[in-house]
Amino acid sequence: MQPISKTPTFLRLLADVEEYLRALGAQSKGAEDQVAEINAIRRVLAMLTKVETGAQLVVAYDKARELMWPGDKIDTARTEGENRAGVWLKQRIELTLDALEIESSPGPTASTSTKRNSQR
Description:
- The protein is mainly α.
- The chain has helices spanning 8-28, 32-48, 54-68, 80-104, 112-119.
- Helix 1 packs antiparallel against helix 4, helix 2 runs parallel beside helix 4 (80-104) and helix 3 packs antiparallel against helix 4 (80-104).
């Protein structure tokens, strides 16, 4: 079984994050909230590039969630851009986790999203 970092689903996640960064950089013109958003996404992308297994992706997801929202709440002290980046990243990583689980699942099991939702 190949590491998840080599799967098309995971590679698409990385490409999407990189494209999101490029688009933000092109339109930011130094706006404070967009610079903060770009920096937050870069930190998460650095974590994602080190992922090899599903368990590591779950850990990266948890770290990204904590980075964006300590205590899993939108932080009013953070800029709007950081919160917007967090929402996008959280949703994108959740979709990737779900897709990877479906790709590797031999049959019906409790889904990762169900497990994640029960932990919230």
